[in-house]
């Protein structure tokens, strides 16, 4: 959220897939759809938009998950009582209209599962999540631009590659990559994050507006984990990577007494920054990096001071400490991880009181 999040070149394929999932789910919920209708023939247009999508979905339904075909799960949904089907269809329509949640006066997002039986809900969930877990891994029935294709469709690996390419701040392939949420290193094992968790909202398991690539630290507990990105169904006080971006709003404030960094924003956006901070623990993670970088410079100057003492040279002066900070500041690059934290540190170290304190500390080195 510290960096802009862009839709990538194959995002239209993900959007087309989400449309297909919505269409399939709503068709299963129609009162006239019976288990026997879930067949290769039954999925053909106009149920799904094209024969390519129908054939692809039929292929997916043949897959076995936990000893049961996905087809039998689809048939279970088609066999639900009419009232359950109506409840599920209403839920599907609301969840599919995710962007509406970021318009003024949006109705509250449903936070409880739409099916009374946990077993039925898990059946629906497994069906929807299989599109991500299995279908996306092997390849969706779409080209990058969303055109249906029977072969060579967009894969999970391709999406990850496209996202990395679009968010690379330094074009050199050997350069470090930066996490869009925290501004730290993207690392060797970045995660595809479902902003709205797919466990609770499986319909969004393949959705261009719901996926992004972030560092494993951001994605795992005790940070994002399975936490909700809304407050009891209201998105009003929340940023969203694509629909209400936080970059440009989120700022890092230096808190001098604590020698710490705080995740902040202008007053109108402060509740959103607070929620983001609560979810990702940004203030404490940024402060840790702030103090670690300070410790690095402290160690460097201490070692230099000891060398000077050993060589019988003059001790550091105030001007030399200031010069050290200025030279380091000049090397800071916006394309490197933690640039924002390091910039706050450089400003903090430029403050005369801090430089004087540093000089006094160095004078104690023997
Ligand atoms: Zn991160």
Brief overview, please?
The two termini are 45 Å apart.
Topology:
Layout: H1 11-28, H2 51-61, E1 64-65, E2 68-69, H3 70-78, H4 82-96, H5 118-138, H6 156-166, E3 191-194, E4 211-214, H7 216-219, E5 251-255, E6 260-264, H8 270-280, H9 282-310, H10 318-331, H11 339-350, H12 352-363
Antiparallel strand pairs: 1-2, 3-4, 5-6
Helix pairs in contact: 1-4, 3-5, 9-11, 10-11
The chain binds zinc ion.
Largest β-sheet summary: 2 strands, antiparallel
**Helical content (DSSP H or I, runs of 4+):** 40-55%
Provide the number of structural domains. 2
- Write out the distinct hetero groups bound to the structure: zinc ion
Describe this structure in words.
The protein has 366 residues and is mostly helical. The protein folds into 2 domains: 194 residues, no CATH class; 119 residues, no CATH class. It is 46% helix and 6% strand. The protein contains 12 helices and 6 strands. The chain has a two-stranded antiparallel ribbon with strand order 1-2. The protein is elongated. The mean pLDDT is 96. Bound molecules: zinc ion. Zinc ion binds next to helix 7. The site of zinc ion has 8 residues, from helix 7.
Keywords:
mainly alpha; 366 residues; two-stranded antiparallel sheet; 6 strands; 2 domains; single chain
